[in-house]
Design brief:
Blueprint: H1 12-22, H2 63-76, H3 78-81, H4 97-100, E1 117-119, E2 124-126, H5 128-139, H6 150-162, H7 187-202, H8 229-239, H9 250-261, H10 289-294
Antiparallel strand pairs: 1-2
Helix pairs in contact: 2-6, 7-9, 8-9
Bound molecules: heme C (HEC) (2 copies).
């Protein structure tokens, strides 16, 4: 086997190969460019492992290293670090686990080199600053950071460190969330599952406790990616319950995600201007102007 260190150049094929060698059976290793496994009806989605995050020993000495470490600290203690920019009780790593290094839970490894990128929700090209600010405004129900702010520079320094050795433009295994086949969700079953499986950490009214809130004023707003049922179901399916992830079926995940996302949460003014080209995904919880204009 080719010895790979985090600092060696990792080409996409090699990265895929490494992921295939070191990983669980059932992965879609034969599908080039497809990071996550394909879901099979009735079977849990196959899980792909990401390229490992570079080790801390590779953080350089001096100002660059200070910035990388500060960026990581901001992402894990977002509210304490940037109280003016966070409007809820979440932190970036509430959803991007293990400082953004956990495979299949929307890791940040390799993301830096994928920007600039066309995004349909914005209807234009985004740079990585815009993508980070989307999560500040929506997932964190807060305010965007000015593009020249020291905090944004530190966050980007950390993201670029996580992409060390990964060629720009390549997609790495384990990025995003494993795909899950869309199913209709049942809020009655979802409420029962929530009570039996989620309440002990997230609180009886989703208000948070040991774990962050799932709805109400302390949660992500309606414009957040997590407010879409398919995204929430895919996340819950792979990452929750936190201490025993993987025990829920796809149907369980859709039921509980539908329950959570039909509870009240903060609004996102201007949400009707999302997907300005009129191409919103089917699980967006609000009407958008461009899509309405397209209908006969
Ligand atoms: C409530 C959950 C949640 C929180 C909190 C959150 N995010 Fe996200 N983030 C998401 C979702 C959902 C996506 C879209 C993932 C996908 O498309 O696969 C995402 C995507 C991203 C991406 C792009 C990832 C990619 O693979 O292209 C970046 C960068 C990012 N978030 C940064 C942040 C930062 C910085 C913060 C804190 C300011 C944050 N996020 C907080 C849910 C969250
Ligand atoms: C053992 C405790 C525990 C259980 C049980 C649990 N979670 Fe979580 N959950 C967490 C923790 C902790 C986090 C945040 C992780 C972090 O900050 O590092 C989290 C994060 C989340 C998030 C993203 C952040 C947010 O608050 O929006 C969602 C959504 C979520 N959990 C849904 C669920 C659902 C649905 C269930 C039940 C099926 C569940 N969780 C069960 C501990 C738990």
């Amino acid at each position: 086997m080719v010895p790979m260190t985090p600092s060696s150049p990792i080409y996409p094929a090699l990265a895929r190969l490494a992921a295939c060698i070191s990983l669980v059976a059932g992965m879609a290793c034969d599908r080039p460019g497809d990071g996550a496994g394909k879901p099979q009806p009735g079977k849990p989605a196959a899980i792909a492992a990401a390229v490992t995050a570079p080790h801390d020993s590779l953080i350089p000495e001096g100002p660059m290293g200070v910035s990388i470490r500060r960026g990581r600290a901001i992402l894990a203690a977002t509210r304490d670090s940037l109280p003016e920019h966070v409007g809820n009780r979440l932190r970036c790593t509430s959803c991007h686990f293990d400082n953004g290094t956990r495979a299949n839970v929307m890791p940040w490894i390799g993301v830096y080199g994928q920007f600039p990128q066309y995004r349909s929700r914005a209807g234009g090209i985004q740079i990585v600053e815009d993508r980070i600010n989307d999560c500040f405004e929506r997932s964190m129900n807060g305010k965007a950071l000015p593009h020249d702010s020291p905090a944004l520079r530190d966050i980007i320094a950390y993201l670029s460190f996580l992409s060390l050795g990964i060629p720009a433009g390549s997609r790495v295994a384990g990025q995003g969330l494993p795909p899950i086949k869309p199913l209709p969700g049942d809020t009655v079953r979802g409420a029962a599952l929530f009570a039996s499986t989620c309440v002990r950490c997230h609180g009886a009214s989703g208000e948070g406790g040991a774990a962050p809130p799932l709805w109400g004023p302390g949660s992500y707003n309606i414009g957040a990616g997590m407010a879409r049922v398919r995204t929430a179901a895919a996340f819950v399916r792979v990452a929750m319950p936190y201490d025993t992830p993987g025990i829920l079926s796809d149907q369980d995940a859709f039921d509980v995600a539908t329950y959570i996302n039909t509870r009240p949460r903060p609004d996102f003014p201007g949400k009707e201007n999302d997907w300005p080209k009129g191409d919103p995904p089917p699980d967006v919880a609000y009407p958008t102007r461009a899509a309405a204009g397209k209908r006969p």
